[in-house]
Amino acid sequence: MSLLSVENLQVHFRTPDGVNRAVDGVSFEIGSGETLAIVGESGCGKSVTSMSILRLLPEPQAQFAGAIRFEGRDLLALPDREMRKIRGNAISVVFQEPMTSLNPVLTVGRQIGETLRLHQGLDARQAEARAVEMLSLVGIPEPERRVHAYPHQMSGGMRQRVMIAIALACSPRLLIADEPTTALDVTIQAQILDLMRDLKHRVGAAIMLITHDLGVVAEVADRVMVMYAGRKVEEAAVADLFRTPRHPYTRGLMGAVPRLGVRAQGRAPGRLAEIPGMVPSLKTRIDGCVFAGRCPDAKDFCRLHAPALESKSPGHLAACHFAPKDARPA
Ligand SMILES: Nc1ncnc2c1ncn2[C@@H]1O[C@H](COP(=O)(O)OP(=O)(O)OP(=O)(O)O)[C@@H](O)[C@H]1O
Ligand SMILES: [Mg+2]
């Protein structure tokens, strides 16, 4: 059984001018200790997917369908009380901007300790001792002194380390990291990545990593899911995806458009490339392929018929009528 199994998740927002199908029938799994990266352009539903797992979206504006099974229990069906026991404990999260997630008037030690007191019943002294251990684990020098510091007394990179310390304090089985390095400068980004890679081995948590940075994907992920306009359009093991991206959208993200297949191979991964054209509105129903309007390979057939997500080679799924398929059985 997978640690997390998302089955046909739909998240629709009711807005004054129609229903926004932010996530429209997405399924994926994450195994224990596995790192799944989710990539795709702005607005494709990455954060909404992760916030649904944590049940942090405003209801009733957000309407859910499908199932999100974590260790076998459907999180969408859990009472709030049960969900609070899971959040910050078995599943925790690191967001992009640590300054808005940290409380400015509490010391970082208190903030790390808070989750330990809440979920693990530690007293103040035990919680502080553990906070010092966590600061040291995430590579903060002089943790005994830093535990008494306030967020504004730390640099951006340090604050992101504190966020990771808070997220890991209760030894989560799943860590959701939504653009954890985007707000940081390049050298600090590299340090935080090293930290995440190192922690992945030491802590053993599964990681769901949302990022615009294909370099990060290449270095940290085991598997990658590519989203477009609220759908999953491709999924594969990381090496497989970089070697043979099957979906024209993925090739576009890798900077291979318009000369398909030429630059995708051997190109040093960087940030997602810009693809000409606009993402279709999530408020109108599209009968054909959601990417047809921007796809360099689209045929009339694509505009009329939505492609199913199908196996193109073992462990490699793509939703494209014309994506090449391996000759050997998938
Ligand atoms: N609370 C909300 N109410 C209404 N619509 C929302 C809400 N949150 C997100 N959306 C919409 O859901 C869609 C998906 O947004 P989401 O935040 O998941 O994108 P994303 O892939 O995380 O993008 P980015 O890379 O910019 O973070 C967008 O159209 C967004 O406007
Ligand atoms: Mg987002």
Which keywords apply here?
eight-stranded mixed sheet, 12 strands, alpha/beta, binds magnesium ion, four-stranded antiparallel sheet
| Elements, N to C (H/E) | EEEHEEHEHHHHHEHEHEEHHHEE
Number of helices: 12
Bound molecules: adenosine-5'-triphosphate, magnesium ion
Gyration radius, rounded: 21 Å
Side-by-side strand order of the widest sheet:
6-7-8-3-9-10-12-11
Overall outline: globular
The chain-level mean pLDDT equals 89
Annotation, overall tally of beta strands = 12
Q: What does the main sheet amount to?
A: 8 strands, mixed
Tell me the β content: 15-25%
Portion of residues in helices?
25-40%
Q: What structural category characterises the helix and strand content?
A: alpha/beta
Low-confidence stretches: 257-268
Distance between the termini: 22 Å
Topology:
Layout: E1 4-15, E2 18-30, E3 35-39, H1 46-53, E4 62-70, E5 73-74, H2 80-86, E6 91-94, H3 98-101, H4 108-120, H5 124-137, H6 143-146, H7 156-168, E7 174-178, H8 186-203, E8 206-210, H9 214-220, E9 223-228, E10 231-237, H10 238-243, H11 248-253, H12 300-304, E11 310-313, E12 316-318
Parallel strand pairs: 3-8, 3-9, 6-7, 7-8
Antiparallel strand pairs: 1-2, 1-4, 4-5, 9-10, 10-12, 11-12
Helix pairs in contact: 4-5, 4-7, 5-7, 7-8
Structural notes for this entry:
There is one protein chain. This protein has helices spanning 46-53, 80-86, 98-101, 108-120, 124-137, 143-146, 156-168, 186-203, 214-220, 238-243, 248-253, 300-304, and strands at 4-15, 18-30, 35-39, 62-70, 73-74, 91-94, 174-178, 206-210, 223-228, 231-237, 310-313, 316-318. It has 330 residues and is an alpha/beta fold. Strands 6-7-8-3-9-10-12-11 form an 8-stranded mixed beta sheet, with helices on both faces. It has a 4-stranded antiparallel beta sheet with strand order 2-1-4-5, with helices on one face. α4 (108-120) crosses α5 and α5 packs across α7 (156-168). The longest helix is centred in the middle third of the chain and has 18 residues, at 186-203. The chain is globular and about 65 Å long. It starts with a strand and ends in a 12-residue tail after the last strand. Mean pLDDT is 89; it is low at 257-268. The site of magnesium ion has 3 residues, from α1.
